[in-house]
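Lab notebook, design round three. We kept the backbone fixed and only want residue identities now. Task for the bench partner: fill in a sequence for the structure below.
Input structure tokens:
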């Protein structure tokens, strides 16, 4: 009888300790530097947003937040490294449309599951894409572009930063919606793709205003429409796809804040609050809006729902266009 009582008491102690561990971890967190993985090289949009967030997190957490650029294989290398990390809040990730919605749709084998292996903390920002054309295209409007594409004897050519990326699937999706034929011309990066569009070697490309830079206002590159829900303050002359007759066409590069799967709820709440505070701070808002990007923080639940819809959307586009990377 005494032995049974001791066992029961010991079991209760273990249970209470187990239940209180995440709370204690949250109270003590962080007591060492935090690592924020950006699965792309320095200098891109994901890196920019990651470094801005890291600076704010460092202040809010009272600890150094180290940005680690782990590029390669369309973002899969750095993303997988976070999927395999401990869910203790010391390894975090900037994920984007490609890493968590498109790669699962186009890679025949992917060593991580975008939902099971990650804890969604918050959507951070959304960056619309513009359909931009070079000097080989005469059209000045989206309607004119579609008409010109249909009248050509050969398909309109589109440049992208590689097979199976957002630029590629955006092209395929719009071509199918508009009923035009498109010839995909993949490049090893967005920069050489843009250079060849501006040089007249390829007709068009989907690109962010940040990626296009000042080129969008030159004779070599002309934006016909943008995927934003309304015209952007820094590009008021570019009409939206909706006002150009394609209200159902939505393609955005989004940026999200993730942790490894099964992060304790207390840490999720803490990191979500800091992310929201960071992405609504005036200095970050001003910097992002200036490059055509909209800060879009929300709750973990909203982000999880958004992610599920994005995964389904791009899986459908990839399947319909038979896009698969072996």
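Proposed sequence:
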């Amino acid at each position: 009888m005494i032995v049974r009582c001791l066992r029961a008491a010991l079991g209760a102690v273990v249970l209470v300790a187990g239940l209180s561990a995440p709370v204690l971890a949250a109270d003590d967190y962080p007591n060492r530097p935090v690592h924020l993985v950006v699965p792309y090289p320095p200098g891109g949009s994901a890196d920019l947003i990651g470094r801005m967030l890291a600076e704010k997190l460092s202040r809010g957490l009272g600890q150094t937040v180290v940005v680690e650029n782990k590029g390669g294989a369309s973002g899969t290398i750095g993303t997988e490294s976070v999927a395999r990390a401990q869910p203790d809040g010391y390894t975090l990730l900037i994920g984007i449309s490609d890493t968590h919605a498109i790669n699962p749709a186009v890679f025949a084998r992917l060593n991580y599951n975008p939902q099971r292996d990650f804890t969604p903390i918050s959507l951070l920002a959304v960056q619309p894409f513009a359909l931009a054309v070079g000097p080989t295209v005469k059209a000045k409007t989206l309607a004119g572009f579609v008409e010109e594409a249909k009248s050509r004897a050969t398909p309109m050519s589109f440049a992208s930063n590689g097979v199976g990326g957002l630029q590629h699937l955006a092209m395929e999706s719009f071509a199918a919606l508009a009923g035009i034929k498109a010839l995909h011309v993949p490049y090893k990066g967005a920069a050489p793709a843009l250079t060849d569009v501006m040089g007249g070697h390829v007709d068009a490309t989907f690109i962010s205003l940040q990626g296009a830079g000042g080129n969008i206002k030159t004779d070599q590159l002309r934006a016909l429409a943008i995927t934003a829900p309304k015209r952007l303050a820094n590009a008021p002359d570019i009409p939206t796809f909706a006002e150009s007759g394609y209200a159902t066409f939505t393609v955005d590069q989004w940026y999200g804040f993730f942790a490894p799967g099964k992060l304790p709820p207390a840490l999720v709440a803490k990191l979500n609050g800091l992310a929201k505070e960071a992405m609504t701070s005036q200095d970050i808002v001003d910097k992002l809006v200036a490059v055509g990007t909209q800060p879009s923080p929300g709750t973990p639940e909203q982000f999880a729902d958004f992610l599920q819809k994005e995964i389904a959307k791009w899986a459908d586009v990839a399947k319909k266009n038979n896009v698969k990377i072996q």
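Keep this in mind before ordering anything: The radius of gyration is 23 Å.
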